[in-house]
C-alpha cells in the first residue's frame, strides 16, 4: 500500500523558563481551541507572530498544549501502527523531530515500565504490542529489541555495556553507572545485504517477553545515552536514539508475518548561541545540526516527486539507517514538536516548514507476510498426494498391460 508520511504536530505548554522570560504563547491548535475537526479532515495550527499577522498550517493532527500523553499516543496514529499495521506485516516508524527542548523525548518516553499518565509513546506501545500478541497471535510471537544511538556520527549499541561507554570527559553519562572507564567505545558499522537492506553489524538484538522486561532493559539503556544540560534544556539529548522491535509471529489464520516497529528520538536542532554550548557540547551541536540537515535534504528530495535527484541517504548515518522509513518500505509517522513561545518563533517556523514538506513524502509499505498452511491443511494435502501417487501407479500398471507387457518408462 502506498501512503504519505503522516505528519502530526505537538505544541507543548509554555515552560517555566519561558514564563520567567515573559514569553507569549503564539502557536496554538485551532482544533483544541475551536472544537474538533471532523474525522479524516486535516487539522489546523495557528502561528500568530503579531495580532494582525496570523498564518495557518494544516497537518494530519495537531495536538495542543492541553493534550495528554494518551491523546498524543492515540491521535498521532501511533496506537494504530502498533496494534494494526505491525500485525498486518507492515513496518512502522515513529520519528520525533523538532528544536531542542520542544518535547521530543518527553513525547516518545524512555522507560518502558512507566505506567503513569506521563508515560510516553514507548511504554504505551510496549503494552499494546504484547496485548495484541495475546489477542491476535494467541500469545505466539517472538519480539527482539535493539537500541542504538548515533553520537557525534558514531553508532553505539545502547543494549550492550562495552560498546556504549562514553569516554569523552565532559559527557555526563549517568552518575551511578559503574562501567569500567578503560574500555574504549566501539562504534558499530553500517552494512548492506545483497538485496540492499541496511543493517548495523554486531548490534545486540535481545529477545523480550514482556513490557516489564523491556522496561528494565530500556531503563538501563537510557542511562547509557548521552544527555547533558544546556541553556535550552536541562535534559538535552545529545544523540539520536533508534529503538527497534522486530516482531515475528503467526496470526490465527495461519499468516506468518515479520515486521519492524522503529521509534526514533532525534536530538534537537539548536542554535549554538542560544544553547550556550561550548567545547564538547558545541561539537555535539555541530554533529546534531549536520545530520539533521542531511535528514532535511532527504526529506526535501523525497517530497519533490518531479525531482530526479536521488535522496542523499549516504550523507549521514542517520539518513542511511532511516532509509526504509523515509520513502521506503514503512508506514511512517513524523511527530513534530514545537514550543508555543514567541522566543522560539524562528525555530518553530523551521520545524513547521520541515513538517509541511514531509507531508509530501510517499512510502511504499509492503506486507512482510509468508502464507503458512495449517496442520489440518498439511494433512489434507499429504493424503491427496498419497492418493494421486496411488492413482499414477495404477494407471502405469494399466498402461503396461495395454501395451502387452512392453516396458514403460516410469
Ligand atoms: N507536553 C509536555 N508537558 C509537560 N512537560 C513537557 C512537555 N514536553 C516537554 N516537557 C518538558 O520540557 C523539557 C524539555 O523536553 P524534552 O527533553 O522532551 O525536549 P527534547 O525535544 O527532547 O529536547 P532535546 O532536543 O534537547 O533532547 C523536559 O523537562 C520535559 O519534561
Ligand atoms: Mg531529547
Automatic annotation (TrEMBL):
Cytoplasm as a keyword of this entry, yes or no, is yes
Q: Does the keyword Chaperone apply?
A: no
Q: By its UniProt entry, which InterPro entries does this protein fall under?
A: Kinesin-like_fam (IPR027640), Kinesin_motor_CS (IPR019821), Kinesin_motor_dom (IPR001752), Kinesin_motor_dom_sf (IPR036961), P-loop_NTPase (IPR027417)
**Which coarse location class describes where this protein primarily resides?**
cytoplasm
Q: Name one GO molecular function term.
A: ATP binding
Q: Where does ATP bind?
A: 98-105
Q: Which residues form a coiled coil?
A: 378-405
Q: Which GO terms describe its biological process?
A: microtubule-based movement; mitotic spindle organization; spindle elongation
Instruction: Pinpoint the Kinesin motor domain residues.
Output: 4-361
What does the entry list under GO cellular component?
cytoplasm; microtubule; microtubule associated complex
Which PROSITE patterns does the protein's record reference?
A: KINESIN_MOTOR_1 (PS00411), KINESIN_MOTOR_2 (PS50067)
Write out the biased-composition intervals (Basic residues).
Answer: 172-181
Going by the UniProt record, its keywords in alphabetical order are: ATP-binding, Coiled coil, Cytoplasm, Microtubule, Motor protein, Nucleotide-binding
> What domain of life does the UniProt record list for this protein's source?
Eukaryota
Where do the segments described as Disordered lie?
A: 163-187
The protein's location, in the record's own words, is:
Cytoplasm
Q: Which family does it belong to?
A: Belongs to the TRAFAC class myosin-kinesin ATPase superfamily. Kinesin family.
Q: What is this protein called?
A: Kinesin-like protein
The source organism is: Grammatophora oceanica
